[in-house]
Amino acid sequence: MRVRLLGTAAGGGLPQWNCACAMCTRSRRDGTGRTQDCLAVTGAGRRWYLVNASPDARAQILATPELAAGPGLRETPVSGVLLTDGELDHTIGILMLREGSPLEVYGPWPVLDALRDSFPVRPILDPYGSLTWRAARPGATIALDEQLSATAIPLGVKKPRYARPTPARTSPEEPPLPHASSLPPHVARVGEPWVVAYRFEDRLTGGSLVYAPCVAEWTAALDAALAGAGCVILDGTFFHDDEMLHATGEDRPARAMGHLPIADSCQRLRAHPGARKLYTHLNNTNPVLAEDSPERATLDAAGIEVAYDGLVLGL
Ligand code: MLT
Ligand code: MN
Ligand code: ZN
Q: What is the spatial distance between Cα 112 and Cα 135, in angstroms, rounded to a whole number?
């Protein structure tokens, strides 16, 4: 499989348009910006899937030679999107992909529901007619091309802030979603995660990758998914739990925002010595963005990399 990191910043990007924190100021000065979290992956090279669709999706696709349109007039290698969650920085970009190419969009059930109700991307795009919405059920294998498959790993139940606390959608008149499982909707949604990781497996090369940009807590399911993986690209939103308070004055602990800080997760990664390890979804407050920071030195010493926009991996 071939993987290209299209964006490696958390929501807001680097620099964030309205932020003059130390890191955003430094990035503005040095021209070292990052776009918002997105990965592109392919097995055989003809069909590419985006993991998450950020507000930067159009620019990211245009900056990526492998994703250039053609050879047909309206042909694109972009075949679909896999959503790890429903956060705005991962879903707004779907609205930028409405120009008529047939795309499969996979996501956890609660996210597909939220994109119908709270952030109604699905009804908005329905008249444009080219997107197919499919549930990524935990543990079910999704065939992406002749050699690449993805499996959703359940990670948590943190809802996006916009998602209204509405009761479960059980109304009998509601039509089932396309490709719904055989369970009726109200049963299918019970216990379904809001946040998942994806484990990609290439059956020709034996390569495997776990992509997990939103990890609220370390779970046995995550450890199991990482077992034997060749590469892991993990939630590196914050290094410290109280980072937002110190950088911006906002008292929003990392864990409360659904992001296990690197200070904790890098210890957990020690249990997986065989995997190449990278952090992504970096918030503009994160000191590892500065190559001369002690936090970056900690990662260097642990053999853990900080991903960057444009990084290509072959697995
Ligand atoms: C997150 O990753 O926690 C969200 O993107 C934050 C947000 O956009 O509010
Ligand atoms: Mn985010
Ligand atoms: Zn900032």
A: 7
Q: Among residues 152, 199, 154, which one has the least CA distance to residue 3?
A: 199
Atom of ligand 1 nearest to the CA of 89: 5
Q: Which residues pair with 103 in a beta bridge?
A: 131
Taking the C-alpha atoms of residue 27 and residue 222, their distance in angstroms, rounded to an integer, is 33
Do residues 49 and 82 make contact, with C-beta atoms less than 8 angstroms apart?
yes
**Ligand 2 center to 71 CA (angstroms):** 34
Q: Is 195 in the pocket of ligand 1 (CB under 6 A)?
A: no
Picking from 270, 273, 262, the residue whose alpha carbon sits closest to that of residue 297 is: 262
Return the SS3 of 45. coil
Cα–Cα distance, 280 to 303 (Å, whole number): 15
Give the whole-angstrom CA distance, residue 122 versus residue 108: 14
Q: Which residues contact 254 (CB under 8 A, 6 or more apart)?
A: 237, 238, 240, 241, 242, 243, 244, 260, 261
pLDDT score for 190:
81
Instruction: Give the whole-angstrom CA distance, residue 16 versus residue 25.
Output: 9
Q: CA separation (Å) from 38 to 72, 78, 149?
A: 25, 13, 18
Residue tagged 């990399």 (tokens): 305
Average pLDDT, the chain: 94
145 lines ligand 1 (CB under 6 A): no
Q: Whose CA is nearest to atom 5 of ligand 1?
A: 11
- Please check the confidence at residue 210 and state whether its pLDDT lies above 80: yes
3-state secondary structure (DSSP) of residue 5: strand
What type of residue sits at position 198? Y
pLDDT of residue 189: 77
**pTM for the structure as a whole:** 0.93
Return the structure tokens found at 51: 């993991």
